[in-house]
Amino acid sequence: MAFRAASAIPARCVLSRKLLPRSFALRRLSTLRNVPAPYPIIDVCPRPTCDCTPTPTGLDINHKLPIAGTKPPYAQHIVICTGRDDWSSRIEDEEGPNLAKELKALLGPKGQFHDPNRPTLITNASLPPTPPSRASAYLFPSFQHVPHIDLSPSGLSHFVNSSVLNDSPQSLQPTSTHALTAPMVLICGHGGRDQRCGILGPLLQAEFHRALDKNRSQSNVGAQVTLVSHIGGHKFAGNVIVYLPPGFCVDGEVTPLAGQGVWYGRMEPRHVEGIVAETVGKGRIVSELARGWTEWKGEGPG
CB under 8 Å to 38, separation ≥6 — which residues? Predict the structure, then answer.
């Protein structure tokens, strides 16, 4: 099975010329039985084909409450590269230059750029910032990497306007960005917030690396795997988001979930191989673990 990056999409693979949307809407689920086409579902995660790291015992994971529809509502996601794999309980309380704090102040309820109709999820990640920059980030649903973010007040306002809100005045140059062409897997490993995530996060990260490396000889694109800060739902640890870029192809066809983000909970190392095979490899949602997904609406740039 070959994964193909969006940068090399064959003609038969293109569903639309408008692959990068400006707007993004949430569909909050009450049940995964109502998943509309073209999102295929598999009810149960396939069993792994090899031995996996055992799940630690004694973790207080909630297996009673329904998990479908527990994804928090958001219209866009900013993933900040910090080069660290754990943070203070509240990431805005970190000492030193703190992009999360500045962005929450600008985009939060009392912020200059707050829009109640476009809630923004702000998350720290273990990915290192692009040197020599002190700040870089990934943006969803635009699936863009911003390698250098100016932390001055004017620089942050410019970044929010041009890259987050896509509302920069014509007199200003847009912030330099690079389109993502490979999947990204975000795993909550925020031990400073909740021990369950701190224990399961690194185990899942190692298992994702193993599962993706196993298939690397059959694919021409990799996936980035990173630990991230709190994304909600500690009781459903391990929590994972799989983002698949627009135009992402498998065996020459755009996968049904290209350009989407699927949220999973109650993940254990034994589930990772199945998620890689089904969600990344086939564009299918594994319903027993799915908390929900993001879905954009509207048109992107031509």
Answer: 256
Cα 194 to chain centroid distance, Å, stands at 20
Write out the two tokens for 153.
Answer: 């007040």
Closest CA to 143 of 46, 66, 224, 67: 224
pLDDT at 214: 80
Contact residues for 220 (Cβ-Cβ < 8 A; gap 6+): 2, 3, 4, 5
- Specify the amino acid at residue 96: G
Whether 4 shows a pLDDT value over 70: the answer reads: no
- What beta strand segments (E) does 18-66 contain? 25-27, 41-42
Q: Which residues of 147-167 are buried (b: 16+ CB within 10 A; e: fewer)?
A: bbbeeeeeebbbbbbbbbbbe
Q: Name all contacts of 46-53 with Cβ < 8 Å and 24+ positions apart.
A: 46/273, 46/274, 46/277, 46/278, 47/270, 47/274, 48/270, 48/272, 48/273, 48/274, 49/273, 50/273, 52/207, 52/268, 52/269, 52/270, 52/272, 52/273, 53/203, 53/206, 53/207, 53/269
What is the maximum span of the chain, computed from C-alpha positions, in angstroms?
Answer: 58
**Mean pLDDT, residues 129-134:** 81
